[in-house]
Amino acid sequence: MTTETLEPRAGRRCQQPLNSLHAAHYFSTDLAGELAAIGVTHPRAVNFAVRSAALGPVGAGTVAAAFYNYKYELVAEHVPAVWRTAAPGQVLAARLRAVDTTLRRLLGDEAVASDGMAEAARLALRATEACTRGGRPLYSAHADLPVPEEPHLALWHAATLLREHRGDGHLAALMSAELDGLEALVTHTATGRGMTPTWVFTTRGWTRQEWDAAAGRLRERGLLDADGELTERGVALRERTEAETDRLDRAPYEHLGASSVRRLTELALGFARAAMTAGAFPADLIGKG
Question: Which of 5, 23, 187, 248 counts the highest number of beta carbons within 10 A?
């Protein structure tokens, strides 16, 4: 392992394109088709099932706690009922088939079979060796799953582990910042890097009235201004929260080493950009409104 010092945000920069590769399947018709084939057809049921299946046939409370920013009542409409339609093992198998199809379609067979893909998979899997289980339910559950043999699926698996490891730590940082799930969404959207309110309402179950009430609470704390923009204090809170998330997620990237982190970032960026160019994500997904 190299002794070169890891830059403070190197792990974040590496995880971001890996997260894009992981998340592409959530917006894929391939996933909808595979889940429909086992009887799960509602888009929200698909989302809850595929991301929580590694936890086993859990109830709404567990999913709402682990996901953090979804409205409990929306979760309860579909969980645990979805497990009466398809068992978690069936969902996990369908998910992996969808990921295979989606990545081949977005990246092309040449990229999937490339040396760069195999190298990225090796590096990402090496980083996961230093992930920790304590207090990280979604990471830990996915870490119990077998590593797929094909490099593009192994990369996706490793990206999933790194995404959930960071995500579990991020929830701890949000709670420390005293931001509930909806307030976290409102502040993230205000940065310009989060989901638009329309997508939040559609996928997370919150209403405009609840969004406005959360914005009101944030204004009372001096974190948002009258126009819904982050104040100086709000910007500082978001920056501290991300910095704390970086700190809690530093171990995998320190284990990998600075030069290998740069190489993995380079490879992941190339694949993520290709996926986005191929239409992996809706054009109106990210923004303030």
Answer: 187
